[in-house]
Amino acid sequence: MMLPKRLIFGLISLHLMIGCTGFNEMCKASVGRRWACPPPWIEWGGKCYTSIMEHLSWSEAKDECTKIGSVLVAPRSQEETDFLMQLLPPEFWINCNDIVEEGTWKCQDGTDEVGFRNWDPVNSEPNNARGNENCAVTTSAVGEWNDMPCDWQRAAICKAATSLRQDCTF
Ligand SMILES: [Ca+2]
Ligand SMILES: [Ca+2]
């Protein structure tokens, strides 16, 4: 049986329309859950994460995260660290520093103070080598930390709220 071309186009359009409507309904139903992070962000623990592969100084890395609506990551647990190491092993900046007072480390997840510490014990970190190490970087496959000069250049991971997600276009 030969169907008129116009009818075939009509049927295809109708099919696409139904398909799209179905997708949007699914999308609306999953707001804040399944698709909470737009690509290339990856969701973990209700937050969105992305890597900055370009090697930057610690403050540049912080600024880059801010520019894209996020913060430089400061891991709160070994579980979060394990996740981060899958994204970007083994060395990346974290938001911990002792810039204000030598030896008093401040770690911040956005505006929250973070109590978790994960210094590399084997190399006695933080060791403030040459009196000039005030920013923290992950240093091993298990994500232990080392203090390094803040102007050295490393990769970074940014962390954002899942509310970054605003519509159903991804
Ligand atoms: Ca220091
Ligand atoms: Ca060090």
TrEMBL record:
<feature type="signal peptide">
    <location>
        <begin position="1"/>
        <end position="22"/>
    </location>
</feature>
<dbReference type="InterPro" id="IPR018378">
    <property type="entry name" value="C-type_lectin_CS"/>
</dbReference>
<dbReference type="InterPro" id="IPR016187">
    <property type="entry name" value="CTDL_fold"/>
</dbReference>
<feature type="domain" description="C-type lectin">
    <location>
        <begin position="44"/>
        <end position="159"/>
    </location>
</feature>
<keyword id="KW-0732">Signal</keyword>
<dbReference type="InterPro" id="IPR050111">
    <property type="entry name" value="C-type_lectin/snaclec_domain"/>
</dbReference>
<protein>
    <recommendedName>
        <fullName>C-type lectin domain-containing protein</fullName>
    </recommendedName>
</protein>
<keyword id="KW-1015">Disulfide bond</keyword>
<dbReference type="Pfam" id="PF00059">
    <property type="entry name" value="Lectin_C"/>
</dbReference>
<dbReference type="InterPro" id="IPR016186">
    <property type="entry name" value="C-type_lectin-like/link_sf"/>
</dbReference>
<dbReference type="InterPro" id="IPR001304">
    <property type="entry name" value="C-type_lectin-like"/>
</dbReference>
